[in-house]
Write a structure and sequence with these properties.
It comes from Nyctibius grandis. By secondary structure, this protein is an alpha+beta fold. The chain contains 13 helices and 36 strands. The strands form 7 sheets. It has an 8-stranded mixed β-sheet. An 8-stranded antiparallel β-sheet has the order 22-21-20-33-32-31-30-29, with helices on one face. A hairpin with a 5-residue loop joins strand 24 and strand 25. Helix 11 runs parallel beside helix 13 and helix 12 runs antiparallel to helix 13.
Length: 748
């Protein structure tokens, strides 16, 4: 008898497989689809309450379903009339893929299993939430000129109920800051409206909440079917966005919002005094907008101020673009934000309210989540957002906030180094050497002993436009891992990019951003894939004319810690061609010798990160040689003046040697064009990542003012005294090559 996948999903059994690769290999156990669950939708807010369908298993309609997440959180499931099973997602204090199991015997055994993707509450589509119509009005209600009705709307089909309740929940963190007993809690407060018709709309005039409830100033609304009891956990729900609860605050707030908020702001300021200083450990900002957008391993667009979406920067007047540091700081899990003006210069809070403000709590939370200050979104709201309402929005005390959240300048920022591979593979190393290596096989592009980072590339034979094989190869797959992180592989499959997470294909149909183990994964709408590892190293992959284009970005700490085809990153090109046994070859080596160097970096089966899930891959790369020694490429393609293609090639490529090479070896102008674009992009990236010298912020003298807010090399700041004051010290100071200002500190 064949083995069963009951309780065994993800395992390779004696007679058959319950691993994700079993389907394409045709070796699944007969009941694989029954026990290893596919679900739809596959993601939802970490707040829970979302109904998802189990697609591949038909169950007995009389079964009592229990769904269990992380082996401990139980939610109720049900079997619909069509025999399809459903689960309700739970409230979680973390994001990422969460394992779940299903029981059909009232929780005795849990033989079925799958994974659910828990998502940051603000990354969930608007249609899944109920909408606070004119959200500003809700959050300013009771302040001058803000009163009247509030309206809540929702998609009424989202809840299968004729009548619904609307509840108010509050978020709090209890215990001592940065200690073991610091805990996060979402708490049901009271029911705002009971047994109202599920029409998709509710309007009301808010009144101050009764008793203690009015002290809760940060929370959320939940709509549930009326058949459930008040505050019951993990039931079908539609949540609103999290928001400042101005609309339900007590009479003391409504009578004098400014005084109430001023008192809160001063109280917040005193609390901050006692907390550890997180500013010392957050990464410095990139000096320029170009650097900030190029350092994709460490910084990502702040969606609240995005140049690609028209620079709507409500909280940062004067900015055209902001980025956030991807990784939270090591000890305090704090976040960094950096904003830039239309000249590409950083805006600092010392000079303008539009400056960037760092965060005591990183907005995205940070692994292992679960406890403050690492709760995605909500820890940040508590320390950095509601306090902004107290000090800056509900009262006029923004100087308190800016003093505790000053922008970081860029004096200690060091840009990463970039290496790229593209086309009929051309390699541009971290130290700036370039060469062509056209082996066929699987190779180590870069590995580092610093964080056990490994990036491996697979090359396959390119084909002429008529379908026959060429004497050229191109990158067809890239796999990567750092320390014991998840393994990501990106490969070409029928002119689309396919992304594998631990051998399983990932869909970006619901979520373009994923918080995974040891890394973040992002896909743009046009299929550019970015992997951001926790060390700050980044890998970017895009499909381009039948081959992959790959860029690896490594922070400065990787200096002298890399090897592989991308060379030894140390600022010296002489040792780029270093073999596994640490011997080196001259940088003037011939293409034939380079072929030997490349072959030396072939991967071994024991250390391969690739997924071999088809007969073709098994035969050609797993059982076959890792470097196909019998495949001999063209080392010097011949330019025949009589060849009509050569004329078009010259027009297309101009003097780009890689573009010319690829047109000749593949007979395709499209490949040449892709290669040229990739080469230009790499040159632009290297240009944008050039180090920039900053001398740091300069203030104005007491009883005087200054002209200029640019503190980078060569910029000048001049000083003027107010009337009846006289200037001593330097009238103007210039930022010099050593990173110091000329002259002396002026005073009036």
């Amino acid at each position: 008898a064949q083995d069963s996948c009951s309780h065994r999903c993800g395992e390779l059994l004696a007679t058959c497989s319950c691993q994700v690769t079993c389907q394409s290999l045709g070796i699944c156990c007969p009941d694989y689809k029954e026990f290893c669950l596919q679900i739809s939708p596959y993601s939802g807010s970490l707040m829970g309450g979302k109904d998802f369908l189990i697609e591949n298993t038909a169950l007995n309609a009389s079964s009592v379903l229990t769904c269990r997440f992380k082996q401990k959180i139980k939610t109720s499931g049900y079997v619909a009339k069509d025999g399809k099973a459903h689960c309700i997602s739970p409230l979680l204090y973390e994001t990422g893929f969460i394992p779940f199991e299903v029981s059909t015997d009232d929780g005795l055994t849990f033989p079925y299993s799958g994974t659910w993707l828990s998502v940051h509450h603000s990354k969930v589509s608007d249609g899944e939430k109920c909408t606070l119509v004119n959200v500003t009005k809700w959050q300013y209600y009771g302040t001058p000129n803000t009163d009247g009705n509030l309206t809540l709307t929702w998609t009424h089909q989202a809840l299968a109920a004729a009548h619904i309740n609307i509840e108010v929940w509050g978020y709090q963190e209890t215990g001592d800051s940065y200690s073991e007993n610091w805990l996060a809690e979402w708490k049901y407060l009271y029911t705002l409206a009971r047994e109202i018709p599920n029409t998709g709309k509710f309007s009301f005039v808010p009144v101050p909440a009764k008793g203690n409830y009015s002290t809760w100033d940060f929370g959320i609304l939940r709509i549930t079917p009326s058949s459930y009891s008040d505050g019951q956990s993990n039931i079908p729900s539609v949540w609103s966005s999290e928001h400042a609860l101005a609309w339900h605050l007590g009479k003391d707030f409504r009578n004098d919002p400014n005084a109430w908020a001023t008192a809160k702001c001063i109280e917040w300021d005193r609390k901050e005094e006692k907390l550890p200083n997180f500013l010392e450990e957050i990464i410095d900002c990139p000096c320029t907008l170009a650097q900030a957008r190029a350092d994709t391993g460490r910084f990502h667009t702040d969606y609240g101020c995005d140049i690609e979406k028209g620079s709507v920067c409500t909280y940062h007047p004067g900015a055209v673009h902001c980025v956030r540091a991807i990784q939270a700081s090591p000890q305090y899990a704090a976040g960094q934000q950096c904003c830039y003006d239309s000249t590409g210069t950083q805006i600092l809070t010392h000079d303008s309210t539009g400056g960037s403000t760092p965060d005591r709590g990183h907005d995205w939370g940070s692994p292992p989540f679960m406890k403050p200050p690492r709760i995605p979104g909500f820890s940040h709201w508590l320390y950095d957002v509601i306090s902004f309402y107290y000090c800056c929005l509900w009262s006029d005390n923004c100087h308190f906030y800016m003093k505790k959240r000053p922008s970081s300048d860029c004096r200690t920022y060091r840009p990463p180094r970039a290496a790229s591979a593209f086309g009929d593979p051309h390699f541009l190393t971290f130290d700036g050497l370039n060469f062509t290596f056209k082996g066929q096989g699987e190779y180590t592009l870069v590995e580092s002993d610093l964080t056990s980072l490994r990036v491996q590339g697979r090359t396959q034979q390119a084909h002429f436009p008529n379908g026959t094989g060429t004497q050229a190869t191109g990158l067809s797959a890239v796999a990567m891992q750092e320390n014991n992180s998840d393994v990501i592989e990106v490969r070409y499959s029928d002119s689309n990019l396919e992304v594998l997470l631990n051998q399983k294909a990932v869909s970006f149909s619901e979520q373009r951003w994923m918080d995974l183990k040891g890394l973040f994964l992002h896909s743009t709408a046009d299929q550019n894939i970015t992997v951001m590892f926790s060390s700050g190293s980044g890998v970017e992959i895009r499909g381009n004319g039948g081959f992959l284009t790959l860029t690896v970005l490594l922070p400065e700490k990787f200096m002298n810690h890399t090897q592989g085809l991308f060379g030894v990153m140390n600022g010296n090109t002489e040792d780029e061609y270093t073999f596994k046994n640490k011997t080196t070859m001259s940088v003037h080596a011939s293409p034939q010798q380079l072929f030997e160097f490349g072959a030396n970096w072939a991967v071994e089966n024991g250390t391969s990160l690739f997924t071999y899930d088809t007969e073709f891959l098994l035969n050609n790369f797993f059982y076959g040689e890792k470097h196909n020694a019998s495949f001999l490429p063209v080392f010097f393609p011949y330019e025949d003046p009589a060849d009509p293609l050569v004329k078009e090639m010259v027009l297309l490529c101009d003097s780009d040697p890689f573009c010319r090479f690829d047109v000749l070896t593949t007979r395709s102008l499209q490949v040449g064009s892709s290669t040229r674009l990739s080469h230009q992009n790499h040159k632009l990236l290297v240009e944008n990542l050039k180090p920039v010298i900053s001398c740091g912020w300069l203030g104005h003298p007491t009883n005087g003012r200054k002209n200029g807010t640019n503190y980078l090399l060569g910029s000048t700041i001049s000083f003027i005294c107010n009337q009846d004051y006289e200037l001593t010290g330097s009238k103007e100071r210039i930022c010099q090559t050593m990173g110091a200002w000329s002259g002396d500190t002026p005073s009036c």
